[in-house]
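BUG: 3D viewer hangs when loading the predicted structure for this chain

Environment: internal workstation, default settings.
Expected: structure renders.
Actual: progress bar stalls at 90%.

Input used:
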Amino acid sequence: MSGLLTLSRAIDALNTFLGKAVSWLLLAAVLISAVNATTRKLFNLSSNAWLEAQWYLFSAAFLIAAAWTLLGSEHVKVDLVYGHLPRRAQLWVEVFGTIFFLLPFCLVTIYLSWPIVIAKFQSGEVSNNTGGLILWPVWALIPAGFGLLALQGLSELIKRIAILTGAMPDAVALADAEAQAL
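Structure tokens produced before the viewer hung:
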């Protein structure tokens, strides 16, 4: 289990680094948007490439940082039942959901999107918009983002199993116990 926990920590570190790095792309998208709007209003100049660059940057931030969001447990949970379960049952729900929903969805998405990325790369396809950008880089974000999400899912699975087997303390249970003590 210690080797798997080392792998989990490495995946967590990778997704933390990438998540923080791509979060700066949102600032770049906002700045591009402001400059593009300003030049359009003041000088009647605009470019589809700049508009698409905003879309590319937002897509990169959203897709690449999705794994970082999972790491921080910041994703949306529908916990009508989950929140009322004992902690051990919650861990089993997370294990089940990761194995039967998250990982298969990520793998199917990678499998289905990869041929499209290859085709767009080989063809050099460009956006239909005048002055638009090449398409393969933004399409490549799909398998990359879902690959990172699958890796983070694996990391979360390792941690949940480690908690269930007693190889790792449960930070959520410890935080709940501290909150109860207050």
